Amino acid sequence: MFSTTNNSDVAASDAPITGLDHVIIAVSNLDTAESQASKLGFTMTEITAHVGWGTANTCIMFPGLDGQGDYVEILGIRDPKIGTNGLAEHLEEQGEGMLSLALKGQADKVTQVFEQLGIQHFGIESLHRDVQVTVGTTQRASFKLVRPQRGPFNPIPAFVCEHLNHDTVWAERFLSHANGTIGIQAVQIMMSHDQNLGSGYEALITGAFSEGASGPVGADIEFYTAESWSRIYGEAEATEAVVYRVSDLSLTGQFLQDSGLNYRTATHGSRGYIVNPADACGVYMVFTDGN
């Protein structure tokens, strides 16, 4: 296993990329996925459409282990006639599961660094969606995105997301969860024998995006061989996992037991509980206290 793990608690706050912002999971039916995540003890945002795109999402928001916030975006199709930015094709070819990773960063600086490193991109794009900060009160959330062209971030595509109004997205009412989750500890990805890590992830690991800091803070991005993966998860039902840090593992275990959901105790890696992809929108879901 190798990862973007950073032993430092500090990254340059004005660096082009400072860590993981959110994980995007593609689903075929948003209503079903929202219900599934709610049963797992997550407080979900309302399903909202992306302005001008044929997609919509519901999100699971966390304070984050670095105090800057992170989240999981569950993404589905609202109107395929408008254009889904490749989501329809992805679902048809690969089915549900992890679609991409969004990295915290500054769009202007990222474009400069991408160009210095020879990473081709689509320029700075705008994205907007509405958020009910309080029930019945909607505010517009806006983002700047920088998406590399295919290749630099393998095996899972990644892009940079700059939030223009942080407090709107991380509204207080979304941050507490019945299962006790406080943030994303890690994203885990299994690589096949014929896959190579893209130059973008290599730059993350070496700190090339962090202006002298030793690397990103917050959640780790971990890459596993098939052999290592099987020791943790057995016969692979998915090649990606999201590991959630919880405040009290015993309370999380009690919630899962009371919920009647299918789960199992982790026997390798961090202690905790594993929910299989069939009950977790196509990825493994792991709850741990980090020990």
Q: Quaternary status of these chains?
A: single chain
Low-confidence stretches: 6-10
Mean pLDDT: 89
End-to-end Cα distance, whole Å, is: 18 Å
Largest sheet: 8 strands, mixed
The structural class is: alpha+beta
What share of the residues does DSSP label as strand, in percent? 35-45%
- CATH class of the largest domain, anyone? Alpha Beta
Counted up, domains total 2
Order of helices and strands: EEHEEEHEHEEEHEHEHEHEEE
Widest sheet: strand ordering: 3-4-5-2-6-9-8-7
CATH architecture of the largest domain: Roll
Cα Rg: 18 Å
Query: CATH superfamily membership of the largest domain, which one?
Result: 2,3-Dihydroxybiphenyl 1,2-Dioxygenase, domain 1
Number of strands: 15
CATH domain fold name of the largest domain: 2,3-Dihydroxybiphenyl 1,2-Dioxygenase, domain 1
Helix content: 10-25%
The backbone outline, from C-alpha atoms, is globular
* Number of helices, counting only DSSP H or I runs of 4 residues or more: 7
